[in-house]
Write a structure and sequence with these properties.
heterodimer, A: 470 residues, two-stranded parallel sheet, 23 helices, B: 144 residues, mainly alpha, 2 domains, 5 helices, elongated
């Protein structure tokens, strides 16, 4: 019972940190239930992890009390800002129709399935050796600047991996007083719940006229994805998908509406993205590149302040890069990313394409997702003119090229590598793909013959935030 | 002309069909995942049913701590490979069994010892209660 209470206290502190950051970023006047279940957890985990990192970089050992004080400090800053702002109201949802209620019940069922499986299924390979082990070292030594990280002769795979997830797990261990790597599985459903809230919110932000049932249906499309449930506990791919969705979604919101708060949220999610997994950095780089490219394409090049915010996650990345220089690197992807390697491995393209396409047809993992995606692409060619869907589709295309490039240069056996990583990499991209499908299919599903491109874009640019100002 | 007029409507119907088919298929898969044979309370039974005389299960059972009601052998442990598998059975998690496929390097005795100490220290919920394969067994498993 005490364990559960301490766990709940740790969840509360993470959410408090996230809510405070969220308040400082958005300064909202109203908050929806979907935002309440997504932003605090997403921002909170990022905030706690970076607080841990900076404590370590300052030569301090991690301490639950010190971290609690930092969190309360951030909350105090937010509280002072709150006193100077109009009070924030909780926007209660309007009454549900029976269709919407049915979808909500299915959402609850999907989350319950995830919770059961994340507890019942054992922690596997990466969950133990890549992430869980780091959390236990951090819990025992309270810093990553310890021989267990820095000594190449100590067995500990992938010492240089980013530490967001291990730091988050360590935070919970510190409050529980033990590295209980069974109980820690309970944090993974929180990432799923946050993803559900975030994809719902982003749909409504990007298309304020979107019917609520439509947003709920595509939120359900993410929640019931079997791959999400079947991924073993302890992996960092679900958190990665959450941060990538936030990075791409808020980046797009900035592109459509040029709101500074969207850019701040993008920067926060971007920091989470590079600090959660090694592939987060190239995903972030591509997103930033595409935001610059689309801004210039729209003849609205980012102003100096906007460009600085767009590039701000790289500043923190540079800090992490410098801090992690001393850690042994047992991956060779950067060394492998050479033109001669790519040219030598051109023959892999056919295998990657055929094998990848074949894996995607596994309905027990992806349901009919490829069919849904193709239907979205071809059902409404509005993406040719619509910034929102055009940006998302081009972003997904770039991500796909990155995935192919990764398999082109890998030094491991290609078949083994694809078997072990393809589903997990694709899972990271799926929320963005479902967001694209939702925006694409909205005019097709709800108004015969409507294109909705310019109209929708216009609405997005004067959308959620402006509406709240009114 | 009438056919052309119907096209948008047909497109809409098709889009709904695809979306509903996707959701129905995904929910059907989720329903089939209901943990009937995978009840949390019966994990040990399932593990041994899968591979009752498997080499990993047989060996590990010799080293299981007292009061352990069962072990769960993960997929990783089922491999027939001769590579080293360092296995830790937790008294505190009697139903859990963790494996380390990347284990300890074969050609460095010092490294083996350090690795074992390292894993003993960090892989158990409580280091003193962890059970690690004896070094001889490890060496045998590695073909040393």
């Amino acid at each position: 019972m005490l364990d559960a209470l301490l766990f709940a206290l740790a969840v509360f502190l993470v959410m408090l940190m996230g809510a405070a950051i969220g308040f400082l970023v958005f300064r909202p006047r109203e908050v929806s239930v979907a935002e309440l279940i997504s932003i605090p957890w997403a921002f909170g985990t990022i905030g706690v992890a970076f607080a841990c990192l900076f404590l370590n970089l300052l030569g301090l050992r991690l301490d639950g009390a010190v971290l609690a004080i930092i969190i309360l400090g951030v909350a105090a800053v937010a509280a002072v800002a709150y006193r100077r702002s109009p009070p924030v109201k909780l926007r209660m949802p309007a009454a549900f129709g029976w269709k919407e209620l049915f979808v909500v019940l299915l959402l609850i069922f999907a989350v319950q399935q995830f919770m059961v499986w994340s507890y019942a299924y054992p922690v596997e390979n990466d969950g133990i050796k890549s992430w869980g082990l780091k959390a236990k070292i951090l819990f025992q030594d309270r810093t990553f600047l310890t021989p267990d990280f820095t000594d190449p002769y100590i067995i500990h795979p992938h010492k240089h991996y980013p530490l967001l997830l291990p730091y988050t797990e360590t935070f919970f261990y510190m409050f529980q007083g033990a590295a209980n790597d069974e109980a820690i599985n309970a944090i993974f459903p929180l990432y799923v719940i946050a993803s559900i809230g975030l994809i719902y919110s982003l749909q409504r932000y990007l298309s304020p006229s979107m019917p609520r049932l439509h947003a709920l249906l595509f939120t359900l499309a993410l929640a019931v994805l079997p791959l999400l449930v079947l991924l073993p506990a302890g992996y960092s791919d679900i958190p990665t998908s959450l941060y990538l969705l936030g990075t791409a979604g808020f980046g797009l919101l900035w592109l459509a509406g040029r709101e500074r708060k969207s850019l701040l949220a993008f920067a926060a999610f971007g920091c989470g993205l590079f600090f959660i997994k090694s592939e987060g950095m190239p995903l972030l780089f591509i997103t930033v590149f595409m935001l610059f490219a689309w801004s210039i394409l729209k003849r609205q090049a980012p102003k100096r302040g906007e460009a600085a915010l767009l590039l701000s996650p790289f500043l923190l990345y540079a800090v992490w890069l410098l801090a992690s220089l001393g850690l042994p690197n047992d991956d060779n992807y950067l060394q492998q990313a050479r033109p001669d390697v790519v040219i030598n491995n051109l023959g892999r393209l056919a295998y990657i394409t055929i094998s990848g396409a074949s894996m995607l047809t596994d309905y027990e993992l992806y349901s009919l997702l490829p069919l849904l995606f193709l239907a979205a692409v071809f059902a409404n060619l509005g993406w040719l003119r619509d910034t929102r869907t055009g940006f998302l589709l081009s972003l997904l295309a770039m991500f796909a090229i990155l995935v192919v490039f990764f398999y082109m240069i890998t030094a491991h056996d290609l078949a083994w590598q694809m078997d072990n990583s393809f589903d997990r990499i694709i899972l990271q991209l799926i929320p963005v793909a479902i967001l694209f499908c939702s925006l694409q299919m909205e005019p097709v599903l709800w108004s015969v013959g409507a294109h909705g491109s310019e109209k929708g874009e216009e609405q997005a640019s004067s959308g959620y935030y402006s509406r709240k100002k009114a | 002309m009438r056919v052309l007029n119907y096209l948008p409507r047909a497109k809409q119907d098709l889009a709904w069909l695809v979306l509903i088919a996707y959701l129905a298929c995904a929910i059907w898969v989720l329903l089939s995942l209901l943990p009937r044979d995978f009840a949390i309370a019966g994990v040990d039974r399932v593990a041994f049913q899968d591979r009752p005389n498997g080499p990993v299960a047989a060996l590990v059972s010799q080293y299981m701590p007292e009061n352990s009601s069962g072990i769960f052998v993960t997929n990783m442990s089922f491999t027939e490979s001769n590579d080293l598998y360092l296995i830790l059975a937790y008294r505190t998690y009697p139903r859990r069994l963790y494996s380390f496929p990347e284990g300890i390097q074969k050609d460095d005795p010092l490294l083996q010892e350090r690795g074992i100490r390292f894993l003993v220290r960090f892989c158990g919920y409580n280091s003193s209660k962890s059970v690690v394969w004896p070094l001889e067994t490890l060496q045998e498993g590695m073909g040393c």
